[in-house]
C-alpha cells in the first residue's frame, strides 16, 4: 500500500514537473495569457510546450487517481480481513460489500458516455467564436446555438427512463452513443446555420440519454461501499471531455476559417463510436433483471460483481425483496402502466421528500451557471480586453486543469467523508468565488483604456476557483444523489425526471446568459449567480440527508417520517 502511494507521488512529480521545466525554458510566462502583447516565442514551440504541460498534468492526475483508488481498496480489504478491526454493525458483524476490478471496468465504460457532453461544452466555447465569424450570426443566434443542445437533451432525459425500463440499461447506452454520433456528423459537415442547429438538436437527444443512464447503471451495479466514487465517475468524464475540447480548440485554432470549427465539432464522432462498441463487455444491470423476473441472470451478474457467492446471494435477496415490496405496493394501489407518473403527481410524504431532493439538487446544479460560465468564459475575457484567441483558449485550458484536479479529489473522498460535507463545501466555495468574479468584472467593466492587471488576475483565479468548487461538490454529487435516492420501481423514470429539470435549467441559463449580461453587465450576472448559490447552500443543508455507506434499498428509509416507518412495521407484523 505504501509503495503504491510512493509510486503515485513519484510518477506525478515526474510527469508534472518535467514539462513545467520545458515550458519555462521556452520563455513562456503566465503574463502571456493576460498581456495584450503577443509572446516573444515561436508559435510552434509555445503550442507544443503548452500541450505537453496540459496533457502531462492530466495524465499525472489520472494515473495518481487510479493508483490511489487501488490503495484505498487495498486498505479496505486489509481492514475487513483484520480480526482486530472494530465493527460498527448494529445487529452483529456484517461484511461490507466491496468492489472488484470488473465493477470498476463496467462503471468506467458506462461513465465514458458523459465525455460526449463534456467535449461539446469544452469545444463549443471556442468553436462558437469561429462559427460567429464564419457564418455571420448574431449573439442571439449564438445563444440559441449553444443552448439548443441542452434544451433538446430534455427530450432524451424524459424518454430515457421509459426506454431503459423497456430495453434495459445496456442498450440504452448504445442508443445514447448512436444518437450523438449522428448529431456529431451533422455538425461536422454542416454547410449552414440551420444545418448546424439540426445537428445540435440530434446530439442533444443523445446527451439526454447518456446523462441519465450512466449514473443509473453504475449505481445499480456497484456495491454500497464504493457507490459514491463510482457514481461520480460521469462527472470525471464530463471534465475530461471539457479539457479535451479545450485542447482541441487550442490546437486547431490556426486552421483556415470554416474548417477549424467543423473539425472541432466533427471529432466528437470518434468517442461515440468507441462508446457504442464497449457494450459487448458490459453486463445488464442486476436490478433491472430482477425487475423483469430474470433472477438467474441477475445472480450471474452479481457473482461477477461481488467478492464471493455469499455476498452475491445476500445482495440478490435484498434486491429481490425490494422489488417484491415495490410490486406489492403498486398492486395494493392499483397502479399499472402509467402508475409511475400517477405516483409522482400524487406522491406519499416520503416520495415527496425524494422528489424535492432530487429535483432541487439538479435545479441548483444548473442555476449555479456553471455550464454558462464554461461556454462563455472567452466572451467574458474578451470584454475584459483579451482579444487574442490563443490566450483566451489558454485560459480555458487552465480552467479545465483545475476542474480535472478537483473532480478527482471529490471522487476519492466521497465515500470517506460523505455527500453532505463535500456538497456544502463546494456550494459555499462557489458563492465566494462568484462574488470575487463579480468584483473583478465590475472593475474591468468600469475601467476606461487599459484594464487593471490585478482585476484580470482576480477574475481568472475566481473562474478557476468556481469551476473547482463545482467539481468538488455539485458536479459529481448531483449524479450520485439522482441515481440512488429513488426506490427500484421508480428509479429509472425518477432519475430521468430529475435530470430533465437539470437539462431544462442548463438550456435556459445558456440561452439567456449573454442577453442578461448585456443588460446588467457580466459583474451583475455573477452577483446574481452568487445569490443563487447562497440559496442552494441553505437548501442542501436543510433538505439533503447523508446517504454514504447505505445500500440503494436502505436509502428510502431516510426519507420516511416516523409515522410512515411505524405503519410499515405494523403491516409487517400483521403479515407475520
Automatic annotation (TrEMBL):
Transport is among the record's keywords: yes
Gene Ontology cellular component list: membrane
Database matches in SUPFAM superfamilies: MFS general substrate transporter
PROSITE patterns: MFS, SUGAR_TRANSPORT_1, SUGAR_TRANSPORT_2
Membrane-topology annotation of the record: Multi-pass membrane protein
GO molecular function, one term: carbohydrate transmembrane transporter activity
UniProtKB keywords: Membrane, Sugar transport, Symport, Transmembrane, Transmembrane helix, Transport
Family statement drawn from the similarity comment of this UniProt entry: Belongs to the major facilitator superfamily. Sugar transporter (TC 2.A.1.1) family.
Protein name according to UniProt: Major facilitator superfamily (MFS) profile domain-containing protein
Organism of this sequence: Eucalyptus grandis
Lineage: Eukaryota, Viridiplantae, Streptophyta, Embryophyta, Tracheophyta
Amino acid at each position: 500500500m505504501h509503495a503504491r502511494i510512493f509510486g503515485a507521488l513519484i510518477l506525478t512529480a515526474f510527469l508534472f514537473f518535467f514539462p513545467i521545466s520545458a515550458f519555462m525554458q521556452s520563455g513562456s510566462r503566465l503574463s502571456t495569457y493576460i498581456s495584450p502583447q503577443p509572446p516573444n516565442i515561436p508559435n510552434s514551440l509555445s503550442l507544443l510546450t503548452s500541450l505537453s504541460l496540459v496533457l502531462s498534468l492530466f495524465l499525472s492526475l489520472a494515473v495518481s487517481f487510479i493508483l490511489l483508488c487501488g490503495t484505498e481498496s487495498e486498505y479496505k480489504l486489509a481492514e475487513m480481513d483484520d480480526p482486530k478491526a472494530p465493527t460498527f454493525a448494529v445487529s452483529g458483524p456484517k461484511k461490507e460489500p466491496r468492489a472488484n476490478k470488473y465493477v470498476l471496468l463496467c462503471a468506467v465504460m458506462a461513465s465514458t458516455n458523459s465525455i460526449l457532453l463534456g467535449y461539446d461544452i469544452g469545444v463549443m466555447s471556442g468553436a462558437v467564436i469561429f462559427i460567429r465569424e464564419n457564418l455571420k450570426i448574431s449573439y442571439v443566434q449564438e445563444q440559441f446555438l449553444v443552448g439548443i443542445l441542452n434544451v433538446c437533451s430534455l427530450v432524451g432525459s424524459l424518454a430515457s427512463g421509459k426506454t431503459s425500463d423497456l430495453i434495459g440499461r445496456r442498450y440504452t447506452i448504445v442508443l445514447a452513443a448512436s444518437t450523438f454520433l449522428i448529431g456529431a456528423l451533422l455538425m461536422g459537415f454542416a454547410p449552414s446555420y440551420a444545418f448546424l442547429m439540426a445537428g445540435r438538436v440530434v446530439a442533444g437527444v443523445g446527451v439526454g440519454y447518456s446523462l441519465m443512464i450512466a449514473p443509473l447503471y453504475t449505481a445499480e451495479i456497484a456495491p454500497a461501499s464504493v457507490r459514491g466514487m463510482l457514481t461520480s465517475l460521469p462527472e470525471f468524464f464530463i471534465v475530461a471531455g471539457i479539457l479535451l475540447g479545450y485542447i482541441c480548440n487550442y490546437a486547431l485554432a490556426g486552421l483556415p476559417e470554416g474548417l477549424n470549427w467543423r473539425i472541432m465539432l466533427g471529432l466528437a464522432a470518434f468517442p461515440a463510436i468507441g462508446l457504442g462498441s464497449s457494450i459487448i463487455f458490459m453486463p445488464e444491470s442486476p436490478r433491472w433483471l430482477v425487475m423483469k423476473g430474470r433472477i438467474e441472470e441477475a445472480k450471474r451478474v452479481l457473482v461477477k460483481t461481488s467478492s464471493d457467492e455469499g455476498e452475491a446471494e445476500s445482495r440478490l435477496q435484498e434486491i429481490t425483496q425490494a422489488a417484491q415490496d415495490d410490486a406489492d405496493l403498486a398492486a395494493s394501489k392499483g397502479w399499472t402502466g402509467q402508475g409511475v407518473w400517477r405516483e409522482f403527481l400524487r406522491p406519499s410524504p416520503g416520495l415527496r421528500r425524494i422528489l424535492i431532493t432530487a429535483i432541487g439538487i439538479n435545479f441548483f446544479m444548473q442555476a449555479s451557471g456553471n455550464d454558462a460560465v464554461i461556454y462563455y468564459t472567452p466572451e467574458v475575457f474578451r470584454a475584459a480586453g483579451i482579444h487574442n484567441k490563443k490566450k483566451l483558449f489558454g485560459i480555458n485550458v487552465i480552467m479545465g486543469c483545475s476542474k480535472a484536479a478537483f473532480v478527482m479529489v471529490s471522487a476519492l473522498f466521497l465515500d470517506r467523508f460523505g455527500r453532505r460535507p463535500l456538497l456544502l463545501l463546494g456550494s459555499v466555495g462557489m458563492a465566494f468565488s462568484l462574488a470575487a468574479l463579480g468584483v473583478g468584472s465590475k472593475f474591468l467593466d468600469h475601467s476606461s483604456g487599459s484594464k487593471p492587471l490585478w482585476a484580470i488576475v482576480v477574475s481568472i483565479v475566481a473562474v478557476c476557483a468556481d469551476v473547482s468548487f463545482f467539481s468538488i461538490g455539485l458536479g459529481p454529487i448531483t449524479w450520485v444523489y439522482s441515481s440512488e435516492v429513488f426506490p427500484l420501481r421508480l428509479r429509472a423514470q425518477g432519475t430521468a425526471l430529475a435530470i430533465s429539470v437539470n437539462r431544462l435549467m442548463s438550456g435556459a441559463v445558456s440561452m439567456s446568459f449573454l442577453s442578461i449580461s448585456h443588460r446588467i453587465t457580466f459583474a451583475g450576472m455573477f452577483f446574481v449567480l452568487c445569490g443563487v448559490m447562497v440559496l442552494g447552500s441553505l437548501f442542501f443543508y436543510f433538505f439533503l440527508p447523508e446517504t454514504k455507506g447505505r445500500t440503494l434499498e436502505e436509502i428510502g428509509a431516510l426519507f420516511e417520517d416516523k409515522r410512515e416507518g411505524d405503519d410499515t412495521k405494523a403491516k409487517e407484523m400483521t403479515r407475520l
